[in-house]
Amino acid sequence: MSTETLFEKAELRNSSVTAWKEQGKKVIGTVCCHVPEEILHAAGAMPYRLRATGVTDLSEGDTWMSTFTCSYARGTLQYLIDGTFDFMDGVVSSDGCLMAGRIFDNWKYVDGNAEKKEFYLKQIAAPRMYNENAVGYYHDYLEQLRTELGAYMGVEITDEKIRASVALYNETRRLIRELYDLSKSDAPVISGTERLKLILAASSMPKEEYNEMLKDFLAKAGSRPPISDYRARIMLVGSALDDPEYIKVIEDKGGLVVTDALCFGTRYLWEPVELEGEDVLTSIARSYLKRPVCPRMVDLHDEFADLIVKFCKDFQVDGIIYERVKYCEIWGGEGLYFDAHQGMKEAGVPLILLEREEIMTNVGQLAVRAEAFIEMIEK
Amino acid sequence: MSNLIGTISHQVDSVIEHAKEKYADQMWMFDVQKASWDAVYHAHDEGKRLIYVGACAPVELIYAFDCVPFVLDMIPTRLASTPEVAARYIDLAEKYIAPTMCGIDKVDIGAILSGDMPDKPDAFIYSTVPCDNSRVAYPFICDHLGCPSYCIDVPFRKNEMGFEYMARQYKEIIEFLEKLTGQKLDWDKFQAIMTVSNQTNDLMNKIADMRKITPCPLPGRLLVLNEMIPGMVGHPAMLSYLEAQYAVGQDAIDKGLGAVKEEKYRVSWLQNMLWSNVGILDWMERKFGAVLVMDAFGYQRGHVFRDIDDLDTICIDFAKKGLALPMIHGASGPVEDYIDLVENTMGDYNVNVSMFIGHVGCKHTWAAAKIITDMIQEKFGLPTLYLDVDAVDGRYKKTDEIRALITEYMETIEENK
After folding, report:
1. pLDDT tens digits, residue range A86-125?
2. Distance between CA A92 and CA A146 in Å, rounded?
3. What is the DSSP string of A310-358?
4. What is the reported pLDDT for A3?
5. Residues of A in contact with B137 (CB under 8 A)
6. Nearest residue of B to residue A65 by CA position?
7. A109 CB near a chain B CB, below 8 Å?
């Protein structure tokens, strides 16, 4: 099994998707981080996180969502409309942020998709606070998802099946943490560009296959050439970043991206789902809500900043790049919280804010700014 | 500007002095503003607790604890008519947050950071709606002020599950207020306030129904002022304001009069109010006989408390009331809420001119604009004017530019008649 093959799984329509569809199985696209993939997996579907990687044409996205909106969302809608994601059998979304919600809303109204019984559409509600009342409310939506998806798939999604899926996904989480551990050393054997590809692969293929391939990659990682010619160790935080080319521009200037707090990074599958002595969906609801994933959670700003501080220490970070997609308002004000956070002040890690668009049209500008930042922080 | 609230309060006083001579028969419009700003400005002098509130805060409960609620977003909507003042706070906020964020939240943040609001609130009761911008602004303001707070997590869907989820939180707010004030809820007082609130909402609904009549008996500008209702519901001054408005409307209906001499067009705006240029409404009435009969932001269909003796029912009704508020009702949940709201408006109010006067800060409504305007075209045969504006920052587009674009559109409609 070639490690290069795992990198190739980051492609939108990769060989695993093709093989899965050839078996007559269903692929369900997910939008945002509050759709527990475990439930989709337990139903026998392949969860696939929708994204806009490499999009170069936003014409459909612009038409439906206007240009006053996040280009990542527009790009994702574009791929749904232009057929890039024509292997999807359904879309499950949460009300993650308002842009994510509108991907789902608009897709329903394109070509009367909402009326197509063969295509599964579901939007669950995810609370924006973490407390027992919120866990209960979220649980009820997960129960709805279990029932309705089970009916669509023609299966009963039992607790046992969900527990098995949780175990599988927790193994993915463990392996991904191990993958990131590779970047803690002074001379990591993997770049940030490569690592993002491996996370994208995780979101785009069956986890059973992914786990085996990632284990294989990790087992052989020691033989990869160590990277020691970098100038600074970078952490990326900010809006959904699904394009390895963006990181490559930074790394080409000598900034090795050793870690991140991105929803296509550590925030995708990291903290294990803890199956406590309670209803399995309650455990999932609790685990998903209490993770600091993105600033949509109004009461987890401190936890998010704590996590950044911890990662800065664990990965010996020299500087933070806070990338923000234009019109991504959920990330539009996080700087306020960073400035006020005592731990971040004490850590004193330099931070630069870079605005970006999903289409990589400003590579030159990014390179210049990244290089200037790296010059400032290199030791 | 060392005390923004005080300055606004004094401005209202000055306007009233001026209006006494010029608009003696319209003082009811000014009295409610005075009651609102004075209460906030003098709250602490009068020994009352000042509570900042966001959408869905249970205003009647706050009054019942003898506290003064203050809708923080009243600052940006008030300052929008003085661009140079709003700009001061917007520019300050943009040092810290994305310039693309909503002007309402930029002014809120800028005003707080500027130190121009020295009268620290005793608490802040806010919520997770209406949008991603407010979800950034409110928790930050709360942290920055360091005051006790309660955040209501508002459900995505307006259904029984959501009502019950919210109702449980309203019960917690009673405990929060009891702890804050050191007093138990005075039920007699609360019930009296709920009674006034119900009368207010009944009148609000009747006034909204009046606007369905052709010609529309009330001008578009009153829709702007009516946005104050949720923040003062249960206060006698708000009831008096609506009683006066109802009487004016009824008088016009009795005489067969409309807000303009010859009503040619019945307009609906599909997004936010243009607070930075409310005069456009008067200008449309004068120039085209085009009356804003209802807008998607200000659309209000107030729920009443069905049983003021039963706490469970009251809390469910708080939830229903909160979810029916401007912006929350159409734009904070699934797009179907927005579609239904606009469809009802277009049909019930017999609208014949549709305009998407789109505040650029309100991205989630822009992201639904095609769905909404396609529906209008399909069901009502009306095209829609798209016009990007900044509802709060008057520097975005000047009055002449807005007028020119609307004029061009109205002339097209005239030609195609």
Report:
1. 999 999 999 999 999 999 999 999 999 988 989 999 999 9
2. 12
3. HHHHHTT-SEEEEEEETT-GGGTTHHHHHHH-HHHHHH---EEEEEE-S
4. 56
5. 333
6. B367
7. yes
